[in-house]
Amino acid sequence: MHSMTWDKNCLTLLNQTKLPGRVEYIRCSDYQTVAEAIRRLEVRGAPAIGAAAAYGLVIGARQLAEGSGDFWSGLMKIVQELKATRPTAVNLFWALDRMAGVAGRYRQSDVQTLLAALEQEAIAIAQEDRTVNSRIAANGAALFDQPLAVLTHCNAGALATVGFGTALGVIRQAWADGNITRVFADETRPLLQGARLTAWELMQEQIPVTLITDSMAGWVMKQRKIQAVIVGADRVTLNGDVANKIGTYSVAVLAKEHGIPFYVAAPASTFDFTMHSGDAIPIEERQADEITTIGGVRIAPAEVEVFNPAFDVTPHALVSALITEYGVLRAPYAPAITKIQQQLRGEQ
């Protein structure tokens, strides 16, 4: 099941807030619907957000072409509106900057030529994500040379990408190779992406999965029920610090304490080459009712103060390896990440 499909004039998104109870799709025929879907987490996961935003810009550009205002200033305004939807996942900015670059190259062309170039670039971004997912899966699966159980946090599967998934892509490939015996999935409070999405995805593929609450991870490690942790990422800085869904840092600390490798699977598009450490990563804070209610039912006092950061930052010292489409990176991360940056420049 794909997180999104494109059919020339419309982006169709799987509404992930309804899973697993309902399989519901959102048809986006204007860029505002795409922006709202990103903001409301109806589409989520760093690579998927980037691809959705790229398609959203195509739709927005077509809306502008049908109007009478200044096309270029309107296009740049849409870029900024889409960038403002989520502050932490760097793929969003990467994809939109890439789209804006294409628009700039065709600025002097007629509008129809520019629109066609934007659509081709958005399709390329989505297709590249599928290819990248496959490479990450192969590189990561090579780390597992004997059957073992793993723990994952949040959802970094097909629902979070355009393709195979990052962390779950590695798990899928290692399972196919006979080197995964079971997956323990943290439920991932407050929005339960592990319970609603990861457990559902793994069950669809008949990969053995055990759901646990976030607070059980340490005891599961203590009981030696898992031998590795693998998660995705929303931003990786030059020194190897990793922003990912809130609760990831706790899992990394626990893994270190129990001598369990902590792997991060992420495409190069998730690396922020402008940021030296995780201290500078903006952390999105979301509304209180995500914590005070579940499924519309209040579970906390009405007036209680709430702190709801959507992400945390895991220091590079706690990361055993970064799994990318360019290979598996080990500490020291800064030289390895800089090398990827140089490779990307060479490919452009």
Written description of the protein model:
Pathway: Amino-acid biosynthesis; L-methionine biosynthesis via salvage pathway; L-methionine from S-methyl-5-thio-alpha-D-ribose 1-phosphate: step 1/6. It catalyses: 5-(methylsulfanyl)-alpha-D-ribose 1-phosphate = 5-(methylsulfanyl)-D-ribulose 1-phosphate. The protein has 348 residues and is α/β, with parallel strands linked by helices. It folds into 2 domains: 4-134, translation initiation factor eif-2b, domain 1 (Four Helix Bundle (Hemerythrin (Met), subunit A)); 141-347, Translation initiation factor eif-2b, domain 2 (Rossmann fold, 3-Layer(aba) Sandwich), CATH 3.40.50. The chain is built from 11 helices and 16 strands. It has a 7-stranded mixed beta sheet with strand order 6-5-4-7-10-15-16, sandwiched between helices. Strands 11-8-9-14 form a 4-stranded mixed beta sheet, with helices on one face. The protein has a 3-stranded antiparallel beta sheet with strand order 1-2-3, covered by helices on one side. It is globular.
